[in-house]
Amino acid sequence: MKFRGAKALTIASVIVTYAERSLRDLVRDHSRSEIKSLDSGESDIRIQQRELLESIVALLPSEKAAFPINFLCCLLRTTIFLRAANSCKNELEKRISVILDHVTVDDLLVLSFTYDGERLFDLESIRRIISRFVEKEKSVAVFNGGDFRDACSTAMLRVAKTVDAYLGEISTYVDLNISKFNGITNLVPKGGVGG
Fold first, then answer.
1. In the predicted structure, residue 87 carries a pLDDT above the cut 60
2. Among 26, 43, 47, 167, whose CB has the most other CB atoms within 10 angstroms?
3. Closest of 80, 138, 134, 83 to residue 110, by C-alpha
């Protein structure tokens, strides 16, 4: 399709449809009440799913904003669940960090919970995504001759509010490691969250 001149958004649409059909039970925007418990063993099916997922991620067009963020979050959760290659996980984390200002609390919750909805995943992916976004915003502020501490962009303010609400949602889970919670809290500039 690319060689025939198809636009990135057309290719993205085909990839989303293919991923949702091929990995039907994994790549969906689940709410925690609907999540089925899936076998976490290393079966042949799981290995095939991992290889398919890694192939799908390798085909993603280079345009970072070509995909909806909820789809990318579902793909990343599937990557974590299937224990796909680090290169696959890193690519998805980079793509999400580029458009993080469009993320919702539900998107972050999709990334945070296992498929049974009862346990938290390792929150390192979320920490890395937010950290990349903050670094990008700092670079833009410095490039534009400003001081990052004095002015937060509209995008940073949106992300800060979303992260604040997200932390409120996950704070009640007993298996939440306090140092990881604080690690996420400290990433967002203090002026970015309403006070």
1. yes
2. 26
3. 80
Is 3 inside a domain boundary? no
Cα 106 from chain centroid? 11
Residue 1 resides in a domain: no
How far apart, in whole angstroms, are the C-alpha atoms of residue 175 and residue 178?
A: 9
Give me the domain span that covers residue 123. Answer: 8-192
DSSP state of 37: P
Residue 113, φ and ψ in degrees, nearest 5: -110, 150
Q: Is residue 154 part of a domain?
A: yes
What are the helix (H) ranges across 38-104?
A: 44-59, 69-82, 86-98
| Predicted TM-score (pTM) of this structure | 0.83
Q: How many residues comprise the chain?
A: 195
Residue 173 CA to its chain's centroid (Å): 20
Q: What is the pLDDT of residues 70-79, one digit of tens each?
A: 999 999 999 9
Crossing angle of helices 105-112 and 154-170, in 10° steps, is 50
Evaluate whether residue 54 is within a structural domain: yes
Total domain count, the chain: 1
Residue in the structure block whose two tokens are 């534009």: 144
